[in-house]
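Sequence in, structure out. Go.
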Amino acid sequence: MNKLMGMFELQALGIPAIKWKEFKKNTKLDSDKLWTVRTTVIKGEDLNLPRLVGKEAEEAIAFGNKMLRDFSDNGMIIYYPYFIAEKSGTLEINKDRIVIEAVKNDLWNLVTYSDRDETIIIQDEKYIYDGEKNFLSAVEINEIMKYISELRKNFRDELSEGQSLLLEWSFAYDSDKNNEKLGDKFLIFYEIRTI
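Output:
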């Protein structure tokens, strides 16, 4: 499952996921928000594709139109309102265990800079903590864990074949155009793939 397939899969799962839309030539964006625009491909390498994160509408539209020109033959450009991440991480699920890795703020701190605040390994109903224990509160861990059974049910074939499911998530806030938090904190998943 590549990034694009994962985007469709997340929408269909009914778990809290980004509400993305396809960027098209005539797309208009609300100037009262910041926007994220991402590039996906149908075939081929889909890691480290161009993206624009947390930018004003005019810049996001210009970027989206450039990506449409560059990737129109083999991809889809998607967009969604930018969110401010307070904590982020990955969730790996396989048939025997669950691994939650967490980092302060954006996921790029984990995947790009290899920062990590806490890792939780759950196996045989036992929790093993590494790093800053209680970085994730019990409420946050339970919020992530409540989607495990649904994910295992939907991907039981892949898991029984020895594959793992890898999701990216954040506890985040909506953002205004000045990059200020709006509303209550929420959990959001924004990428899923099998590995």
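Check: The first helix runs from residue 3 to 13. The radius of gyration is 17 Å.
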